[in-house]
Write a structure and sequence with these properties.
Layout: H1 3-32, H2 37-55, H3 57-80, H4 85-129, H5 154-172
Helix pairs in contact: 1-2, 1-4, 1-5, 2-3, 2-4, 3-4, 4-5
Length: 173
């Protein structure tokens, strides 16, 4: 077999397996409102094994560095109340899967997605109520302020960022 087709076949298997595991975690997040520990365990084990098989010791170190980076960001966001425990576990598993560079892209895409949904929701809610987006001083009425009505789980945004960062990586190679 041609070495180029062997590499492409291995990358395609990695790509399909990684995205199917991560997307199944998103489905359980949407329908059960919690991340399945079994699926996240599979993602973590698959990430460690595939990184080690693909690049040896340096791949294992990259996976562990991605785990540390995403775990530290996830722990900070969890302690601040922005992420739930399942979202944090998903972020750690995805960080192990993606490595230190692509997890940064995934977190930026996830944060941008959450910010965009909140801004669209806030502007639509403000337009519907006829108020202003920011009220200060004596004009501020706290009784009328409501959180945005349109919410997506943080884990779904993390999965979207993972899908885009993995897909863009394979397209731009």
């Amino acid at each position: 077999m041609n070495p180029i087709t062997e590499v492409l076949r291995r990358d395609a298997v990695y790509f399909i397996t990684a995205l199917s595991l991560v997307n199944s975690a998103a489905v359980t997040l949407i329908y059960r409102k919690r991340a399945s520990n079994i699926i996240l365990g599979f993602v973590l084990v698959f990430a460690l094994l595939s990184q080690m098989m693909h690049s040896g010791r340096s791949g294992l170190m990259a996976a562990l560095l991605g785990m540390v980076i995403s775990g530290s960001v996830g722990l900070f966001l969890y302690l601040r109340g922005y992420l739930g425990a399942g979202d944090m576990k998903l972020l750690v598993a995805v960080g192990t899967l993606l490595g230190p560079v692509r997890i940064i892209y995934a977190m930026l895409i996830a944060g941008g997605t959450l910010m965009l949904v909140d801004v669209i929701s806030l502007s639509w809610n403000t337009r519907r109520s006829g108020g202003t987006i920011v009220a200060v001083g004596s004009h501020m009425n706290l009784a009328n302020l409501r959180p945005p009505f349109l919410r997506i789980p943080s884990g779904v945004a993390v999965v979207l960022g993972t899908n885009l960062s993995v897909g863009l990586f394979f397209l731009w190679r």
